[in-house]
Design brief:
By secondary structure, the protein is α/β, with parallel strands linked by helices. It is built from 18 helices and seven strands.
Amino acid sequence: MPAPADATRPATDMAELLPSLPLETRCPPLPLRRYNGFWLPESVLTELPAIHARLEPRPSDVFLASFPKSGTTWLKALAFATAHRATHPPSDAGHPLRRMNPHECVQFMEMDPELRRDTGSLLEEFEQLASPRVLATHLPYCLLPESITTGEGAAASRVVYVCRNPKDAFISGLFFVKKVSSAYGAGASAGARAFNLEEAFELFCEGRVFAGPQWRHVLQYWEASMRRPKQVLFLEYERMLRDPEATVKKLAEFMGCGFSKEEEEGGVVDEIVKLCSLKELKNMEVNRSGGNQAGVRNDAYFRKGSSGDWRNHLTPELARRLDKIVEEALQGSGFAFVDDANM
């Protein structure tokens, strides 16, 4: 008998279970199914059993986790540049981040943005990567492999999570969907063009978006960081913007590759911050004109990268409504999102 939809771990035969899961087709670019309380694309859910069965984390692995459009691209760049600075000094003209989009340097473990390979092929590719491996995921914490969520001590891999105020995450996600939906077919593209802010806002408030509800996604990782602080680092996008140098130092220490005194005095931290800044990445030729084989342009991953842009798009009434939903959902948890206006 298939596992119930709210089972803790993925069903072994997800393809059999999938048709019985609640379906959401109003949120472009891909249909979503609700599993264990979260809405995810069918393609991601189908691959979960393989990820749980075949992914073999290494002690030096770092998994970058996030709800979509919460600082993922920036975190990928910072983590990659920091972890591989010995091989690729940030000042090098041929640095990978000057030739490739951050999403090419750090791949998602549960999906291929270019839509060319299944998860089995991706896992084989990951096995060939030299340590330390840096991989990414949008999966909620409850759907990560137990090999990642139960390890302790020196033998355990690490998770770095970045969260963002839900109002900014919503606005950034809306713009992103409109940009990339053409890569998923004419039907998805047409749906995205007709997808207005009010409709998108309703779905976001109901949690019916990729990896939603956003606040529950964030809360699970925050709680994990409280339980396992040596294995889970919780970062807030707004604080990262305020002090990126401190963020890079904290990131390096957590990943097990802290900066030496000589590196700090030599400006390596500053060089990484500059290399990975939105302005620098956005202006690189590969991110201005490049794209992947699925048809998603690299410039789709770069917009403003700021905090508080939601004020230019949401009415005070809509903002208060979302704030109330989030406040009620987080009540009693001890966690609260950063409000950029009060920092």
